[in-house]
Amino acid sequence: MTENQLLKIAQDFGSPVYVYDAEKIEGQYNRLTSAFKNVKNLKINYAVKALSNISILKLLHSLGSGIDTVSLQEVQLGLAAGFSPDQIIFTPNGVSLHEIEQAAKLGVKINIDNLSILEQFGTKHPEVPVCIRINPHVMAGGNANISVGHIDSKFGISIHQIPHILRIVENTKMTINGIHMHTGSDILDIEVFLYASEILFETAKQFKNLDFIDFGSGFKVPYKAGDIETNIEELGKKLSARFNDFCKEYGKELTLAFEPGKFLVSESGSFLAQVNAVKQTTSTVFAQIDSGFNHLIRPMFYGSHHDIVNISNPKGRERFYTVVGYICETDTFGNNRRINEISEGDVLCFKNAGAYCFSMASNYNSRFRPAEVLWYKNKAHLIRKRETFEDIIKNQVEVDFSIKKEKQLVK
């Protein structure tokens, strides 16, 4: 998409607004499948939590993707988007047995990462095949909040507890049809990923009825010019060869599964916001926009970087600005950024806004969540309306405080 097209969307749909480029999503999907073209059975399960708009899900469904879900509601969204139950894997953490049973009733693949839940589920439903999420005890990821495969993580069943898993399987007579891991997000070193994969292969040898091995995801995308990204092509070459060798050793053609979220949608997204005011202090020039961490929390939550471009003045001289929001806490999007000169009313574009941006938006300060637009076949399609005041109060229940006082009898 061009800056002029983005500016036109901001004018037509208002700001702030999220915009997604369908062509970029399709390109990333094809890039991943191409990298693993030497694997006979490959399944890409898009991680719904990254961006859950039903139109995005339908787009990925049209490309041949499955989905990875972490809540019953995401499962229901997937079904509503047209995915069949066998195209959906349910990988929750810390949910009740009841929620897992509800998902199982819908016919989706079940992935369990807790010994207690595994034993309870296997005892009650031994006929339902289950995938097991393993914690490989490998530290990987760009931030502590997104590193999920280390020894102190709440995710997965420790590789040191494999004997316990085997006892549960033997006692319940349940079937384990998949082995899964996810080490973290923003993985730079594919050797770390390959090392964790070897742990998964060793674990898989313990289970004789597998249909698939799920290697999670966490592939890093570039966030600025010259940024490092996961070398998907090299990973595809090395892991495909190792996976094919393992299938021969195992005696069965298994499916190699991934669950990318950020990799597929992050670079497709642009967040557009208008500058309310330019504020000069004794030490800083603030560009104050019509948004805050209620719409885009990643810079404050993860310390993530989003390039910020002034699409209203792309050829203006560069100056230094600190871009901030309108929330009544510190909500800094970027400190001391070099941006083309900003005037009040200009539209700023935040890059890499496709993953974990709108999906983490809120109504904090009773602000409305923004609209979402999909750029598909050179046309802007509104895929989520901007919220209104009615949306803010529609589920609130008012109490009647107009208590009538009874008249006092005067003796």
UniProtKB/TrEMBL annotation:
What residues does substrate bind to? 298, 302, 329, 356
GO biological process terms on file: lysine biosynthetic process via diaminopimelate
- Annotated positions of the N6-(pyridoxal phosphate)lysine modification: 49
Q: Which PROSITE patterns match?
A: ODR_DC_2_1
Q: Pfam families under this entry? A: Orn_Arg_deC_N (PF02784), Orn_DAP_Arg_deC (PF00278)
Q: Which cofactor does it need?
A: pyridoxal 5'-phosphate
Q: Which reaction does it catalyse?
A: meso-2,6-diaminopimelate + H(+) = L-lysine + CO2
Q: List residues of the Orn/DAP/Arg decarboxylase 2 N-terminal domain.
A: 24-266
Quote the pathway field.
Amino-acid biosynthesis; L-lysine biosynthesis via DAP pathway; L-lysine from DL-2,6-diaminopimelate: step 1/1
Q: What class of enzyme is it?
A: lyase
| Molecular function via GO | diaminopimelate decarboxylase activity; pyridoxal phosphate binding
Could you confirm whether the keyword Lyase appears in this record? yes
What does this gene product do? Specifically catalyzes the decarboxylation of meso-diaminopimelate (meso-DAP) to L-lysine.
Specify the protein name: Diaminopimelate decarboxylase
Q: Which gene encodes it?
A: lysA
